[in-house]
């Protein structure tokens, strides 16, 4: 047990990435407290540590969670993440992703908690001007979701200068896959991520998978994305926690595998993994979809001594497929 490190509070620890994080920390011997309002998370996923149902908009509720507990660091995963919804209802995003994060930071200050690890996103960069995307790439988000995340990164810089806060912001590219042990995985409603949608089609839970745009300047005409396994994301957070615990300075890092896969390549890989025919429907481009998004994660590898362990796309999809079958078998109505 890492008793000298106190307890890690995981805001959003009942969600897709937060639950994997909770498991990883407990496996490393840390004590954890999960705070989640269950608007997108699942109580079944808060399987480790202590659980409190609380919204970050409820500052008194947050204070009661912090009170009397030796919390040494906070990891923050409580964000709304649907790009289209952020355009349609920006207020929802600015209240939850910005105002409520400030609440969390305020309560941390009140209780002397000085270490913060923030779940950021590649959406802060906007349309890429160079590939792969390094940390110093221009930051020009093109939707309220990306802007809300960039605002928090800027706020963290200010807080670090003024309040002796030390933080790490981790900018994910495309989180994918599921816990290799199949304890937790991806379960969104609605689901918008490509791999679970493809696996829905493999299961027969949807008739087909749509490809939005087949005329991009890519080898097969479809969008290319960098997929990083959720367990590797959790590993990067542990590395960031240890970086801060060892006296490391505040910083921001891009997290990806450094290799891109097209939509068609994902579908083909899923066909191999599942052995299923996955029907495809080709549609026009969606507004705001860049042709290629690939991360340069060299700084995370160097500074945090982190390296993705799950780089093979078929392996990533295989973990998702095992989870996806369990999800329908145990938690959702069977499509069969």
Report on this model:
With 336 residues, the chain is of the alpha/beta class. It has 2 domains: 202 residues, NAD(P)-binding Rossmann-like Domain (Rossmann fold); 106 residues, Alpha-Beta Complex (UDP-galactose 4-epimerase, domain 1). The protein is 39% helix and 18% strand. A 7-stranded parallel β-sheet has the order 3-2-1-4-5-6-10, sandwiched between helices. Strands 7, 9, 11 and 13 form a 4-stranded mixed β-sheet that branches. It has a two-stranded parallel sheet with strand order 8-12. Strand 5, helix 5 and strand 6 form a beta-alpha-beta unit. Helix 6 packs across helix 8, helix 6 crosses helix 10 and helix 8 crosses helix 10. It is globular and about 55 Å long.
Average residue pLDDT: 95
CATH topology of the largest domain: Rossmann fold
Q: What does the radius of gyration come to?
A: 19 Å
Q: Could you estimate the helical fraction of the residues in percent?
A: 25-40%
Distance between the termini: 44 Å
Structural classification: alpha/beta
Describe the biggest sheet?
A: 7 strands, parallel
Query: Can you write the helix and strand succession as a string?
Result: EHEEHEHHEHEEHEEHEEHEEHH
The CATH architecture assignment of the largest domain turns out to be 3-Layer(aba) Sandwich
In spatial order, strands of the major sheet run 3-2-1-4-5-6-10
Number of strands: 13
Number of folding domains?
A: 2
CATH class of the largest domain: Alpha Beta
pLDDT < 50 runs, ≥5 residues: none
The total of helices stands at 10
